[in-house]
Design a protein that fits this description.
- The structure is a single chain.
- By secondary structure, the protein is α+β, with helices and mostly antiparallel strands.
- It has 15 helices and twelve strands.
- It folds into four domains: 88 residues, Muramoyl-pentapeptide Carboxypeptidase, domain 1 (Orthogonal Bundle); 72 residues, Orthogonal Bundle (Muramoyl-pentapeptide Carboxypeptidase, domain 1), CATH 1.10.101.10; 65 residues, PGBD-like superfamily/PGBD (Muramoyl-pentapeptide Carboxypeptidase, domain 1, Orthogonal Bundle), CATH 1.10.101; 115 residues, Alpha-Beta Complex (endopeptidase fold (from Nostoc punctiforme)), CATH 3.90.1720.10.
- 35% of the residues lie in helices and 17% in strands.
- The chain is globular.
Length: 431
């Protein structure tokens, strides 16, 4: 149901068409239809959060896209497009507030560290947050999603306005005697660099630096999406992981110093070059001789095409996060557990049995123990009847994605939680 609030959104800027229009601030949620839903979907599509084109219907896919946008923007992730989400999506020209002078407004605007900044002042801020336990990763100099969340949590804990921006009040509280106004410095503080050893870009980050990386990955053949979105989502993560694998880097999906350096170097290996040397299965021939005969054993090594399928399968599953759990559903907007695994496998050309029990018994997929799970393995669990009754896709680091009847939607859970640890049956390696 759509509820139109009394407030007006001053100016909505549509980057995709360059037009400006005034609109009422709508509260759009699951089940709504109309022009405002189409506008929201178009913006989410342009930013890379929504993979399908606008339909005007606020379904599970749109809800998941809104939720992911809210998470990346530090908003309450409820999947509903309320005033705060609309404003974050489209921006607003009504950003001025009464100040004592125009110079005060300028000072306030320029004396703030915010999302996308990349400089030594961010490093100083991160070090203080790290020392106080609000940031778990060491300083990188890049003001990304983790830094914004750490700033917001610090602000909440100290009674400051929790906006995720490090203005004078926040930095004075954090830095104490080490605080200095950014205005007095001759160094620009709000510039995002596109390379450099201090940057670290993670899934969920967004901004100009992400678009630069997407453009570079596209030129090398790894990023295949039609749009440069400025959002580090599942499609970009697949491209980054494929680039890292082809270039002999740690495959973690995080764009750190080594990945950035390689990406910007003339020695970066393109996808086409990597394909020539790795897509055909590597065959190692070993000959063992017995007393009566000798035989040749061919060992097929893992190909890069398998890794690409794993990442594409996971990207598909992640794109369905937030989709409603419905028993017997196989998508595209609702799933049960085996419906999700079947659809994810189908997205990369693999046919699978429909039920979790049947999938757990496919003998052509290697059976693996919990200790030997790898990213992309299917994981199976007992139901209350002690038969296999649930399946998910292993992501690594103890996490798996699945359509959960308990949560009521597609979500990511820990395989080490007491319930899943107790009911784990086995894994199956499809690739």
């Amino acid at each position: 149901m759509k509820r139109v609030l009394t407030a007006l959104l001053a100016v909505v800027v549509f980057a995709s068409c360059g037009t400006i229009a005034k609109a009422a601030v709508d509260y759009s949620e699951l089940g709504d239809t109309g022009t405002s839903v189409t506008q929201i979907q178009q913006k989410l599509y342009d930013l890379g959060f929504l993979v399908s084109k606008p339909t005007g219907y606020f379904g599970a896919g749109t809800q998941a896209a809104v939720t992911n946008f809210q998470k990346s923007s530090g908003l309450t992730a409820d999947g509903k497009a309320g005033p705060a989400t609309i404003k974050a999506l489209f921006g607003s020209s009504s950003t001025t507030s009464s100040t004592t002078s125009s110079s005060a407004t300028t000072t306030s605007s320029n004396d703030v560290l915010r999302y996308g900044d990349n400089n030594k002042y961010v490093t100083q801020l991160q070090q203080a947050l790290y020392d106080k336990g609000f940031l778990t990763a060491k300083p990188t100099g890049y003001y990304g999603t983790s830094t914004r969340a750490a700033v917001t949590n610090y602000q909440k804990s100290t009674g400051l306005t929790a906006d995720g921006k490090a203005g004078p009040a926040t930095r004075k509280s954090l830095l104490g005697a080490n605080y200095a106004s950014l205005i007095s410095s001759s160094t620009t503080t709000s510039t995002t660099t596109t390379n450099g050893d201090s940057s670290e870009i993670n899934p969920g980050d967004k901004g100009a630096i992400v678009s630069t990386i997407q453009t570079k990955l596209k030129s090398l053949g790894y990023y295949t999406y039609s749009k440069i979105t400025q959002f580090y989502g599942p499609i970009t993560e697949v491209a980054v992981r494929a680039f890292q694998k082809a270039n002999g880097l740690t495959v973690d999906g995080i764009i750190g110093a080594k990945t950035l350096s390689k990406l910007n170097s003339s020695s970066a290996i393109s996808k086409s070059a990597a394909t020539k040397t790795t897509t055909t299965a590597k065959t190692t021939t070993t000959t063992s001789t017995t007393a009566s005969s000798s035989k040749t054993v061919q060992v097929l090594g893992a190909s890069s095409s398998s890794n690409t399928k794993i990442e594409a399968m996971i990207a598909y599953a992640k794109s369905k996060i937030g989709s409603k759990y419905v028993w017997g559903a196989t998508g595209p907007n609702s799933f049960d557990c085996s419906g999700l695994s079947t659809a994810a496998l189908k997205s990369v050309g693999v046919s699978a049995p429909r039920t979790s029990s049947a999938q757990s018994q496919v003998s052509s997929w290697d059976k693996v123990t919990r200790a030997n799970l790898q990213r992309g393995d299917l994981v199976f669990f007992h139901s209350s009847s002690r038969t296999v009754g649930h399946v998910g896709i292993y992501l690594g680091d103890g996490q798996f994605i699945h359509a959960s009847s308990g949560v009521g939607r597609v979500t990511i859970s820990s395989i080490d939680s007491s319930y899943y640890k107790r009911n784990f049956v086995c894994g199956r390696r499809v690739f």
